[in-house]
């Protein structure tokens, strides 16, 4: 077989073979139809060879309508002749990939070979394709000269088609309707991608340029597109200096890859999912009956994965990587010399679960394992914000010059602090799953790095960072396997961040975070900052560094400053210090390192709240009290653990009693610094206390407070909010809801305990509120909403750690008991009393007076109508709905008498619970 076929549809046709020339004897061969060029021309390839030889056969004695020709393909643009597409499609559907038998001869004065084609191996029993297309009325039979027997048969078949009105001989079809409207070019290719919206569209592959680039018609609109297959690249033809294909250079596996695709896709019905554009070319995935052609090419070693186009894939990138791995392992074709570069890992270092204890500047974390070991984990294949500037020549990015000794990259590199904060809030003290991807070897001044894919709640942390524009993806050589196992997802996330102009990709100038470093410039502490800090009840801060058990460095977001902080009220042993900058190492005091570890584990990179009392003598550090994110006083915690002792300066503090009690317990337990402590027995002193006169009972005070009753319990206690604090509560809720909307918690990342102050997602409106955990039962928790008084049982997945900024404010709902009132024992009577009380006060503005403060329980209060001054408790008594409690406090004597009188009147009138007489004639304790 001879030359390769001309694959341009609608190529110009020769005239008929001259009748004067004596035809050479026709040869008979068999092969497989590779391509249908038009209704009268096919390309047949041999059954063997890779690629096999091909022959172009033009049907004898017939002429098909000419197909449209695209501009630039050897001439100007032309349109279809009527029925040209239908005649081509008739043959395509019948012949593509079919085994055929054919005869051919070549007239002496022609460059074409003419013949007949039969489907199958035997032309005696096979279908004559030329006769079939004439019978359908889709071609014209040549009638010049003396007809041969074959030609005469075709003429008779054409006459029958004309008589039956088939195909182009139909009288009921407008010829113009049989001409395609082909869109050869597209001014806005991206719009075409958006129109199809990532959905598969039916198509026919018209030409295979190389294994990963094809041309196709998208149906039914006949968009003619050049498509680069997403995620892969096959060997292609080398280009010469003019950018034209250089056929003299043979590229290994290029012909084999093209042949592989031609045998499966050329002129087949497929589906194409358009995913992006590259210049005027489209990028997409081709789906054929046996699956994704890209996977097949990769599995055979005829293609390699390409990161940049894999990033635009809607789905299936992981399958492409898996297919490529198969070819690598088998060393097929392009991978025949492949050597595994990734070192083998043992199972212990490869995958582990631990708790994040520290976040470094955007690209690494410290993770504590179950055995207490701490491992440094680098995020695979991402790069945090870097110290860069625009070069003086053009737009080249170069590294910034070295900075001074006080240079702090965390704050001065744009987006670095934002990236660190994202990781800190998401990961600190949370459990993560770490899967080792590769080990970056020691080079230059950089140590060996173990790089992992880190998952929290099933979410890839690196991917989340890249999606927010807080990190970029590392670009690798195509043969470099040292990369993240989720690299394709990282690339896709980066593309979305760039498209959304997020983080580092925003067009606005990157501005550094302005931080006042008071650890260096001490002069402004006393004058500018200390007065406001002392006035504040508590100040929110982040612990950036722990130098010892009682010495920390804080970042105060409100004032955007760094300051050294000393814990008040305690004396902590000094920890050891390593040699640094020529200064020799210093040995620590006993239990100094333990105190350092204790403090680091509880506050490093955590949100804390502090109250600042004063500064040290030099004015370089501030001294105060610190509460952890669990609202624990760190000074007290260190003392109780035996890692610090109470300092004499604490005697004037409101926390002195707590500190002394904690120290006494540590001494009794002989913890740490008190391990060898021997208690001194003081000399016994006789103290004679003077007998004091009994205090005179205080008279009843009336001090009405305007409140709103928000909840009533089944025991007739109720919760009330102060009207004066209403705006403050609204502000608190607005900030809390905004905080959780901006930083939604990860379900399952928090394990609540009984007594914890948490954030709970209320079932009714799915908003987050402050709550206290009262009970844990399996996967459910019973909580009390402390600002409203209502209770609810929730799945623990709807609970989250309450940010420290919201934990210091007191509950806005206070529980009270209705003074001098006892509910009846009968359940129906009890429900009636509760219903009446709810109708009177629930969600209403009332006046409340605390009558008696009770230790260990809700205070007793009376509730009054602000307009009529009606005492609602007394009214319940008067209506016969409740009983009067017997109280002996002298200051309540007059009030008790009024309530008793109301009860006697209700009894006399046989109201409600008294309708059958006196019900107090029993042994109930309250009536003895």
Q: Could you write a compact summary of the structure shown?
A:
Helices cover about 25% and strands about 25% of the residues. The chain contains 21 helices and 45 strands. α6 packs parallel to α8 (about 315-330), α16 packs parallel to α17 and α20 packs parallel to α21 (about 895-910).
Tell me about this structure.
This protein has 928 residues and is α+β, with helices and mostly antiparallel strands. It has a five-stranded mixed β-barrel. Strands 8-9-10-13-12 form a five-stranded mixed barrel. Helix 2 (129-135) runs parallel beside helix 3 (149-164), helix 6 (293-299) runs parallel beside helix 8 and helix 12 runs parallel beside helix 13 (487-499). Residues 1-22, 390-398, 684-696 and 923-928 have low confidence and may be disordered.
Shape: elongated
Mean pLDDT: 86
Please identify the structural class as seen in this structure. Answer: alpha+beta
**Radius of gyration based on Cα positions:** 44 Å
Number of strands: 45
Please bin the fraction of helical residues.
10-25%
Strand adjacency order, main sheet: 1-2-3-6-5
Which stretches are poorly predicted, pLDDT < 50 over at least 5 residues? 1-22, 390-398, 684-696, 923-928
Strand residue content: 25-35%
How would a textbook summarize the main sheet?
A: 5 strands, mixed, barrel
SS summary, helix count: 21
Straight-line distance between termini: 120 Å
